[in-house]
Amino acid sequence: MLSPNGKIKINIAVNEKVNWTLLNENHFFLATSPMSMTLHDGTILGRNTVVTSAKNETVKSSFATPFYKKKRVQDHYNTLTLVFTIISLSSSFVTKISFIKF
């Protein structure tokens, strides 16, 4: 997934674990790192999963603000929503990743 200006990129790889890498203008900013969450019952979200759906969305809007030097602020970002299924549990969870234009 790319940032709106195309300079920042997130790569997501789903194998035994969910891993992600962050690049800025094709230079590694954050090396490949695992992404997971452990629930109170010990279930680990991010291990032994498959992606069951993915949805990209671009949002471009604006909103009024009385506190900024401009009357309206541009709100432009890309999102990637991934739905994962945990192989061993046959249940699913959703993660949403967003890029905000700076």
Automatic annotation (TrEMBL):
Q: Which Gene3D superfamilies match?
A: 2.70.98.10
Where would I find the Glycosyl-hydrolase 97 N-terminal domain in this sequence?
Answer: 3-84
What parts of the sequence cross the membrane? 79-100
Query: Origin, by domain of life?
Result: Bacteria
Molecular function (GO) terms listed? hydrolase activity
Q: Which cofactor does it need?
A: Ca(2+)
Print the keywords alphabetically: Calcium, Hydrolase, Membrane, Transmembrane, Transmembrane helix
Q: Does the keyword Membrane apply?
A: yes
Q: One matching Pfam family, short form? A: GH97_N
Q: How does it assemble?
A: Monomer.
User: What's the protein here called?
Assistant: Glycoside hydrolase family 97 N-terminal domain-containing protein
Species of provenance: Flavobacterium frigidarium
